[in-house]
Design brief:
50% of the residues lie in helices and 8% in strands. The chain has 411 residues and is α/β, with parallel strands linked by helices. The protein has a six-stranded parallel beta sheet. Helix 10 (211-224) packs parallel to helix 12 (254-263) and helix 14 packs antiparallel against helix 15 (311-318). 42% of the residues are buried. Bound molecules: adenosine-5'-triphosphate (ATP). Adenosine-5'-triphosphate binds at residues 7, 9-11, 17-18, 21, 106-107, 109-110, 132, 134, 164-165, 167-170.
């Protein structure tokens, strides 16, 4: 029999309070191993903007990567729609031996929420509870609430006898939005992920985006997740957020920018022959080269696998590798966002980013110049679609030695 301590959470971000909780649970001897369950769309947090699941999963993985007997599960975030603990428990149960025991671990704040969850009686019949005292709730109040749950639902509840850190994700996130990443509050590996991807950088301005759009994007993320490796997923999420940021400035549909940004590389990690197959189905014989074909292949996949019918979104995905001579604002925006999203690191990015804030066409010109210089150095031909874009935007590329700039891997 194995006793599993299941710690569910939003982890937005994963902080040292979470880490201390994991360590205390392992040390208590009451469980044999811990699973961190990264929350999917939470029914009781529908109005709050929650960071994309891919980021939250990555933060949790990094936050406990040096701890033994801890695993991070993506069981909830693999499934579109809302996640209910009662369903998660049923799914997890299938993966365990019948004699294994699930112990749900929560901070004491959760004791008060639990009765309003879906089927609390089923949850409490399936799992024992292990509760950590958190500030804001007195031990007396927590115990009284635990007694009520025992009475009403026959709950089996134990308290962790270990001091916790006075920290909440809300407080740590608010500091991160201001650019303050205190490694006393967040594990260093998590802090470096946050700053590299500027994970909370657009939160304030994107707070006006309607929850329904975030939910739609979250569902698309679930669908695209199995097709991408973790690096590509983080890049796609960065392009999504940065494209939404630019869309707000340039009065392009934020929804379309988000979907196109998230989906632009959906074919990128597939086997080369599969990419080529989908690119052929997309019907553009000009874009079948291995480095470029994931554009049309992605557009085909977005339409036929993910049901995205909007021609503007599909076009932006199709041409994101080359551009073309007749680009819409959405096309420009996705092309530029792909090149200069926050985690990109090559030279001249700042000039492109600065231009992108006011003039998309100028940002596109600067991107094209960099790409042409890169191709020249690599001795590779420029694609006719890229040439058409250069012509249309009136860019004259000097054939000079530009050894100071390098584009990392193209996408
Ligand atoms: P928020 O501020 O958004 O409510 P949170 O810090 O409570 O966030 P969650 O990710 O939802 O973060 O928490 C996951 C689990 O960890 C919950 O059971 C919560 O009670 C517990 N927890 C969070 N912070 C602490 C802490 N500082 N000490 C002990 N438990 C904590």
């Amino acid at each position: 029999m194995i006793r599993i301590g299941l710690i569910g959470g939003t982890f937005d971000p994963f902080h040292n309070g979470h880490r201390k909780l994991v360590e205390a649970v392992l040390k208590s001897g009451l469980v044999d191993r811990v699973i961190l369950m990264v929350a999917g769309q939470q029914p009781h947090k529908t109005k709050l903007k929650v960071s994309a699941a891919g980021y939250r999963y990555e933060m949790a993985v990094r936050g406990v990567s040096d701890l033994e007997l801890v695993e991070v599960s993506d069981l909830e975030i693999r499934r579109p729609g809302r996640s209910y603990t009662v369903d998660t428990l049923a799914l997890l149960r299938h993966e365990l031996a019948p004699e294994d025991k699930i112990v749900l671990v929560y901070g004491s704040d959760v004791l008060f929420d639990l009765p309003s969850w879906r089927f609390p009686e089923k949850i409490l019949a399936e799992a024992d509870l292990l509760i950590a005292h958190r500030g804001g709730i007195s031990q007396q109040d927590a115990k009284a609430q635990a007694d009520r749950l025992c009475q009403d639902f026959n709950a089996r509840i134990q308290f962790l006898d270990a001091p916790m850190l006075e920290l909440s994700a809300t407080e740590v996130r608010a500091a991160a939005v201001r650019g303050e990443l205190d490694t006393g509050k967040i594990p260093e590996r998590v802090a470096s992920l946050i700053s590299r991807h500027d994970l909370y950088g657009y939160d304030d301005e994107l707070a006006v985006v309607e929850p329904a759009i975030w939910h739609q994007l979250s569902d698309y993320e679930c669908q695209v997740r199995p097709l991408l490796n973790h690096k590509r997923l983080l890049h796609s999420l960065n392009v999504m957020r940065y494209a939404m940021h630019l869309a707000q400035i340039h009065r392009v549909s934020v929804e379309k920018a988000g979907i196109a940004g998230l989906m632009h590389d959906c074919a990128k990690c597939l086997e080369a022959h599969t990419v080529l197959h989908y690119a052929r189905l997309a019907g553009d014989p000009e874009l079948l080269e291995p480095a470029l074909a994931h554009g049309p292949a992605g557009a085909w996949l977005a339409r036929h696998q993910f049901g995205i019918e909007d021609p503007e979104i599909l076009q932006a995905i199709h041409y994101h590798t080359t551009g073309n001579g007749d680009m819409s604002d959405l096309d420009l925006l996705i092309y530029v966002a792909d090149k200069v999203e926050p985690a990109r690191t090559y030279n001249n990015l700042e000039a492109i980013r600065e231009a992108a804030e006011t003039d998309l066409v100028q940002a596109m010109r600067l991107c094209l110049v960099e790409v042409e210089a890169f191709l020249e150095r690599e001795n590779k031909p420029s694609h006719p679609y890229a040439q058409a874009a250069l012509m249309k935007l009136g860019v004259w590329v000097q054939q000079t030695d530009r050894t100071d700039t390098k584009l990392p891997e193209e996408s």
